[in-house]
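step: validate -> pass
step: tokenize input -> pass
step: predict -> running
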Amino acid sequence: MVKAVDHVGIAVRSIAEARKFYEALGLEVESIEEVESEGVRVAMIPLGPTRIELLEPLQADSPVGRFLAKRGPGIHHLCLASSDVRADSAQLRESGFSVLRDEPTPGAGGHRVQFIHPKSSGGVLYELAEE
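step: predict -> pass
step: emit ->
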């Protein structure tokens, strides 16, 4: 069951450069980690009950690298907190929506994640994340 907005993912060319904007607003980077399976370095910035996730590609041919080449920096996805990613994925499939993977995969911060294809969700790439 979806329960809240977990974070907004923003594709950036460089976390080191992008974080300057958020730090000028008084926000702090809480953590930085690499998610090899997604080909990204991720910086999490807490903001009230949600977070901003900066996504820097590790390779040009990663999903975020291709996104940057095609669209440039900007909002990449909206992540919804889920109490059961597997069940939510199954429900979406049964309702005719396209999820990107057969099963949830490891994501940042030890979460299990699943993505919903933007062609089936009004042009927005959604991520479901379960702690």
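step: describe -> The chain has one domain: 2-130.
step: cleanup -> pass
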